[in-house]
Amino acid sequence: MVRLITHNLLACHAKGCTSNNFPLQFKDVAIEIREAEFNPDFLRGFLARLEWGALVDAARQLGDTSLPPEVPDMLDDDFLKSLHHVLLEIHVEEGAMICPNCQHVYAISNGIPNMLLAEHEIG
Predict the structure, then answer these.
(1) Which residues contact 71 (CB under 8 A, 6 or more apart)?
(2) Residues 6 or more apart in contact with residue 72 via CB below 8 angstroms
């Protein structure tokens, strides 16, 4: 399923698409909110692996404006709960992710992104 924790790791890998290929942009999405167990230690540990600006932009594309533009110095429970919600509870069920560089479309169906490329698109 497409959650923002996964989306934050995805880049376009079409042949010749090596720059400006991250983050993929959401288009025509249907989302579902599903509760997940809150684990602040996991969030603190995972935070350093995130591309923060890409995460904030993706959350906003999906209608969530709860994350601040920059990671705060103090990781209090309110911040961690917002981060938890954005990363783990917002599920993109349908729609597409589009490469900002080559405009390749990665369809999302039943919560699963199709990241496969046709043979002529493989680099």
Answers:
(1) 47, 52
(2) 79
Instruction: Answer for the pair 32, 91: CB distance below 8 angstroms, yes or no.
Output: yes
Ramachandran region of residue 20, left (φ > 0), alpha (ψ -120 to 50) or beta? left
| Domains located in the chain, CATH noted | 2-117 (2.20.25.10)
**CB within 8 Å of 90: residues ≥ 6 apart:** 3, 4, 31, 33, 59, 62, 64
Count CB-CB contacts under 10 A for residue 14: 19
Q: How far apart are the C-alpha atoms of 33 and 85, rounded to whole Å? A: 9
> What pTM was estimated for this model as a whole?
0.92
Max CA pair span of the chain: 48
HSE of 32, CA atoms in CB hemisphere, 13 A: 10
The pLDDT tens digits of the residues spanning 41-95 come to 999 999 999 999 999 999 999 999 999 999 999 999 999 999 999 999 999 999 9
CB under 8 Å to 81, separation ≥6 — which residues? 38
